[in-house]
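> call design_seq(struct)
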């Protein structure tokens, strides 16, 4: 019975398989390709949900699809690039943001697209600020400010604060004057947003601090502290910045007690573990370079530490003098990095806002821009003046030969060497032997003889010519 059952079972299985193979298979259901509008809506939803990596993928595919249509400056492509740049900004991919927003501006030229153009200019300026291009950032932010309608006073004031922040180290006196003149408008426009108003007082105080106007700078920082909650045991990111700026101003004013009190209110020294140490690659910038860093220059740079240990948001807060020097220090700090384990050991609050005072190193000073050009300039000058210099040398040599003692004599065929007392009868000897036929030379020889009589110790006896 077992053998019969097995055979029947196997045969049944084979029969079922043959029947299944004989039945026609249904064609797969085609997947509908999303339209461009559906892709755009999916990217918008990803941005609203905070899924910026997914939004970048969606808008990248949409950009590729629209660019393949052969219309590089179309409005749809420009809007897709705008949303792609905004998503990349949230992921700290600032170079990619600049690469997408600059061509996006070329497709948003219609008057109806003014709001989109303001968005692009705003994010472009922020990205350029993060990549240490303050002049370009200020220019794009000013362009955005010119497109914002007057009824949006709060947004216009916020743009003005960002412009001042980018121009702070270029001309702090002008920035302080502009912020002081706009103070009533700024205070009125930002009255509902204490954080934005505190940012205004911080930038104004820093502009005064760079000029070493310590008393008004401390007054501005005190107003920023009041707007961020005052000196309490509770501290936020904005309160920490205001208290740290006030502590720096107190230290520069030689108020060490006030500086220590304000530093304590920033939360410094309250870390449970002393884990915030400089990384292995925390090298200060060399002195010199394009920014012409000097050994007595220093700057205070504020930055954040990402979860993977990379430095983000490095920006100068104070510098001992104005100019590009401050951004040279900030660029050096931006190259630091901690390991993932070291970053995890640092408390999140201190990773969000950390400050460091940094100076340049004199180990192997960098050459300035002028020093770098000196070798090329010297080679060019040597080649350009080679013929002229040789002409000068020949001219000086002829003068020595004619006026400067016996060194003038060069033996030539048919000429007779003059006697030792040649200076007494120089002109008569030349006329006889006709080695020099110019009457001007004979007159010069006569003048030389009269000069020699008045000199007790002629210079040509020491091997030098009186005429050279």
């Amino acid at each position: 019975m077992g053998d019969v059952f097995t055979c029947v079972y196997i045969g049944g299985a084979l029969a079922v398989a043959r029947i299944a193979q004989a039945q026609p298979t249904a064609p797969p259901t085609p997947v509908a390709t999303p339209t461009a509008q559906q892709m755009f809506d999916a990217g918008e939803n990803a941005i609203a949900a905070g899924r910026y990596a997914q939004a970048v993928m969606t808008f990248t595919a949409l950009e590729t699809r629209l660019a393949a249509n052969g219309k590089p400056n179309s409005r749809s492509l420009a809007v897709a690039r705008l949303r792609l740049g905004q998503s990349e900004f949230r992921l700290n991919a600032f170079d990619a943001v600049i690469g997408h927003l600059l061509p996006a501006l070329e497709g948003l030229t219609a008057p109806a697209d003014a709001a989109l153009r303001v968005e692009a200019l705003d994010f472009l300026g922020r990205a350029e600020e993060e990549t240490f291009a303050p002049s370009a950032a200020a220019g794009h932010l000013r362009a955005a400010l010119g497109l914002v309608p007057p009824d949006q006073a709060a947004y216009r004031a916020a743009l003005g604060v960002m412009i001042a922040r980018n121009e702070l180290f270029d001309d702090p006196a002008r920035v302080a004057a502009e912020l002081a003149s706009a103070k009533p408008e700024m205070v009125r426009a930002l009255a509902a947003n204490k954080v934005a108003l505190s940012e205004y007082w911080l930038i104004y105080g820093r502009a005064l601090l760079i000029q070493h106007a310590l008393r008004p700078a401390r007054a501005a920082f005190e107003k920023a502290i009041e707007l961020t909650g005052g000196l309490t045991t509770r501290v936020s990111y904005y309160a920490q910045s205001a208290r740290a700026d006030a502590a720096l101003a107190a230290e520069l004013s030689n108020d060490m007690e006030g500086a220590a009190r304000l530093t304590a209110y920033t939360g410094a020294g309250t870390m449970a573990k002393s884990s915030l140490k400089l990384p292995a690659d925390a090298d200060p910038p060399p002195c010199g370079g394009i920014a012409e860093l000097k050994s007595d220059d220093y700057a205070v740079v504020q930055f954040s530490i990402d979860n993977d240990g990379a430095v983000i948001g490095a920006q100068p807060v104070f510098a001992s003098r104005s100019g590009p020097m401050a951004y040279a220090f900030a660029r050096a700090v931006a190259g630091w990095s901690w390991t993932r384990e070291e970053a995890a050991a640092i408390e999140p609050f201190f990773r969000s806002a950390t400050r460091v005072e940094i100076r340049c190193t004199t180990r192997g000073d960098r050459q300035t821009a002028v020093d770098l050009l000196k070798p090329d300039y010297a080679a060019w000058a040597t080649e350009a003046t080679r013929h002229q210099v040789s002409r000068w040398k020949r001219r000086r040599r002829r003068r020595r030969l004619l006026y400067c003692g016996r060194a003038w004599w060069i033996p030539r065929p048919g000429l007779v060497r003059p006697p030792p007392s040649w200076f007494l009868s120089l002109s008569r000897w030349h006329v006889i032997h006709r080695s020099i036929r110019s009457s001007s030379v004979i007159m010069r020889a006569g003048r030389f003889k009269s000069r020699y009589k008045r000199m007790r110790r002629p210079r040509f006896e020491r091997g030098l010519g009186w005429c050279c």
